[in-house]
Design goal:
With 155 residues, the chain is mainly alpha-helical. Helix content is 54%, strand content 8%. The strands form 2 sheets. A 3-stranded mixed beta sheet has the order 3-5-4. α1 packs across α6 and α2 runs antiparallel to α3.
Length: 155
């Protein structure tokens, strides 16, 4: 689920920027909901004082590149901050494997149903490991396909 961090600024940097770029390049499916989009728009305009045109640009980018889900049910998963429930609701609706966040209320959950809740650094490590394993598996398959069947018959 996509959500702006509380300490965001106009020049996205570091791990959150890497994750956003990965989502935009379709290395994984980014998911959000209308409720999260409304929060994003409000935070950009009111908290971070983005001009209207910049706010519109970011919102349109997310709307055009992320899958929008409409959660079918409400949950009370985050008692310390009920406004964070919208993140969990979107994750449930999307059957998301991961929720990536810097929000301590969500991180404290660790997992909710099928979704692991990770910090950006944890998510990047998971993706790096998965990419390395997939690459290794692909190389092994390629090598095996090139081997002469005769070489394997005595094994």
């Amino acid at each position: 689920a996509f959500r702006i961090r509380k300490n965001a600024n106009r020049d996205w940097k570091g791990k959150p920027k890497q994750i956003l770029e990965m989502a935009l390049s379709k290395k994984f499916e980014g998911v959000t909901s209308p409720q999260i989009i409304l929060e994003l728009e409000g935070k950009l305009r009111n908290k971070f004082k983005y001009p209207q045109d910049e706010t519109k640009k970011y919102v349109e980018l997310v709307l055009s590149q992320f899958t929008i889900v409409e959660p079918a049910s409400k949950v009370s998963a985050v008692p310390d901050d009920p406004t964070d429930n919208k993140i969990i609701e979107a994750a449930i609706e999307a059957n998301a494997e991961y929720v990536v966040t810097g929000d301590n209320h969500l991180l404290k959950l660790g997992k909710y149903r099928n979704s692991k809740i990770l910090k950006p650094s944890q998510f990047l490590l998971v993706k790096k490991i998965a990419t390395a394993l997939a690459s290794e598996q692909s190389l092994a398959k390629e090598w095996l396909s090139k081997q002469d069947n005769e070489a394997w018959k005595d094994l």
